[in-house]
Amino acid sequence: MDINKLTLGQIKEIQAQVGAQKESRDDSHWIVGKPYFIRTVTHHLTGRLIKVTKLELVLEDAAWIADDGRFHEAIKSGNFSEVEPYPDGAQVIVGRGSLIDATSIQTTPRSANDCGSCGAGLDRKHEHEREHDQEREQERELTRRMWKINNYDRRTDKPRNRGK
User: Fold this and answer.
1) What 3-state DSSP class applies to 99?
2) What b/e string do you get for 11-37 counting C-beta neighbours within 10 Å, with b at 16 or more?
3) Which of 7, 79, 116, 150 is most deeply buried (CB count within 10 A of its CB)?
4) What whole-number distance in Å separates Cα of residue 164 and Cα of residue 101?
């Protein structure tokens, strides 16, 4: 059979025999103009969605999120621990094949200490952020004390040999 001499009808018949179906795609869940937090197989990004294509999402005001911090709090407040913004106005293209998940957020952070609620920058730290910092430090200190009390080796997560 010479593939170059197939008619359209023959091609459709072959497609039907091998189970080829038309691709069904619904992109109605993406809202152009809305800011998103996107996790891919290798990176976490934020940005305002400006275009959706079959294979890609295009973002502006984008940033690579090197460290989310406390995930629930970061998504809720838009306050991420480590933010590396792309240059202002740069369009960032994300391959849809690499997506793990995405969720809409309130704003696109442009620096690590930008408040997701009001946009306050590096020079102002909000009271609620100070409280969270204190809580995290208390949790760390409690963990250090528990390791010491239980005589655990932090590297192996096993009790140390006490020489008995």
Assistant:
1) strand
2) eeeeeeeeeeeeeeeeeeeeeeeebbb
3) 79
4) 51
- The Cα 17–Cα 57 span in angstroms is 34
Look-up of token digits 């406390």: 70
How far apart, in whole angstroms, are the C-alpha atoms of residue 121 and residue 109? 10
**How far apart, in Å, are the Cα atoms of 32 and each of 65, 67, 107, 143?**
21, 26, 14, 44
Tell whether pTM > 0.85: no
Asked if residue 80 lies in contact with residue 69, where contact means CB atoms within 8 angstroms, the answer is: yes
Look up residue 9 and give its two tokens.
């009808």
> For residue range 62-108, what is the model confidence (pLDDT) as tens digits?
999 999 888 998 898 888 889 999 999 899 999 999 999 999 999 89
Helix H segments across 2-126?
8-18, 71-77
Torsion of CA 127, 132, 138, 143, to 10 degrees: -170
Contact 105, 78 (CB under 8 A): yes
Burial, 40: exposed, middle or buried (Cβ in 10 Å; 0-12, 13-18, 19+)? middle
Q: Partners of 159 in the beta sheet?
A: 152
Cα 90 from Cα 67, distance rounded (Å): 21
